[in-house]
Design goal:
single chain, 12-stranded mixed β-sheet, 4-stranded antiparallel β-sheet, 8 helices, 16 strands, about 30% strand
């Protein structure tokens, strides 16, 4: 398999809920007027706590400096795994559990912190740019390493890495953070960029003005539901993660859905903000799911992590993860 190191230098930021209006103009331009920017990588995820932005340097210039925005230290690079060559963004995702043992676990073993973004099209593993030499050394035995330069895929150089790295001693990774599962059912979907103008008003409302609207069909006393919506526009491909009620607001035949109409349940990781320096959080979740052969999407945000698993697997997933937690 190939590991592609994308050319985007990324910023990860948090925007406070009450400060979102300060950034609305820039966010709308990045989401709906991409032809007027040089941004190629943009993702916006709303959680109950905040908005998480992942954006390349060109896109970051569109956002105003504000005390309502917190930016993670350092620049990040996006990696993704391509099976059998070709363009990863145009193929179905390999899945975070499929790369748990080949990518995520080895990086955790070498104390490399990762930030995950699963989309409808593929799975991005974000690493700090300064960690790239160690990342390449760690993964070079498993993958053909390629870099994307000016849109062309070329062999990745060694970056001066030849020796001096000590093979880590593998240790168990018990789950140390609290887990919860909201009652929402989620869809992972996409839409044709050509249809974006026809649903722009609805998408704007869902993305940025949801605080004033009620979820259709939501029980007023269902306190276990959470607000979660993710929009990504990466290299021309759109990905959406939303709950079932929000998806029902869209016109028929606009969203791409699987023939089975598969719905996903969420496992939230973290009782308080996780930060960016702790290693192995993604591995703690993805390894047990990989062992059980359960597919999953995984979305890291500025404060918490989120795994999406098939609806029918949620009880076995919670059971397996709590067993891992009890093993510490």
């Amino acid at each position: 398999m190939e590991l592609h190191i994308l050319e985007h230098r990324l910023k990860v930021a948090s925007i406070e809920k009450e400060g979102i209006q300060v950034c609305t103009h820039g966010l709308l331009k990045l989401a709906f007027l991409s032809s007027r920017t040089r941004c190629k990588f943009f993702s916006l995820t709303e959680t109950p706590e905040d908005y998480t932005i992942i954006v390349d340097e060109e896109g970051f210039k569109e956002l105003p400096q504000s005390e309502c925005m917190s930016v993670a230290d350092a620049s990040w690079l996006a990696l993704n795994v391509v099976s059998g060559g070709g363009n990863a963004s145009s193929s179905q995702p390999i899945g975070v559990t499929k790369i748990a043992k080949s990518v995520i676990a080895p990086l955790a073993d070498h104390n490399i912190s990762v930030f995950m973004l699963s989309t409808y099209q593929t799975d991005y593993i974000l690493v700090r740019e300064r960690d790239l030499p160690l990342v390449m050394h760690t993964l070079s035995s498993e993958f053909t390493l390629l870099r994307v330069v000016n849109g062309e895929t070329v062999a990745a150089g060694a970056l001066g890495v030849s020796n001096g790295f000590v093979k880590p001693k593998l240790v168990p990774r018990p789950i140390i953070h609290p887990l919860s599962s909201p009652s929402n059912l989620f869809c992972v979907t996409s839409l044709d960029p050509d249809t974006l103008p026809s649903v722009a008003t609805l998408l704007m409302d869902v993305m940025l003005y949801s605080g004033g609207s009620k979820d259709s069909g939501a029980s007023p006393d269902d306190s276990s539901r959470i607000r979660f919506f993710s929009f990504s526009l990466i290299e021309g491909y759109i990905s959406l993660v939303m709950d079932e009620q929000t998806a029902q607001r869209f016109p028929n035949n606009v969203l791409f859905t699987s023939a089975s109409g598969e719905l996903w349940k969420m496992v939230r990781i973290g009782g308080q903000p996780l930060g960016f320096d702790e290693c192995g959080i993604v591995a703690q979740i993805s390894e047990p799911l990989a062992t059980a052969d359960i597919p999953a999407y995984y979305i890291s945000t500025f404060k918490f992590d989120h795994a999406l698993v098939p609806e029918e697997n949620i009880q076995s997933v919670i059971g397996a993860l709590r067993t891992e937690s009890a093993a510490q």
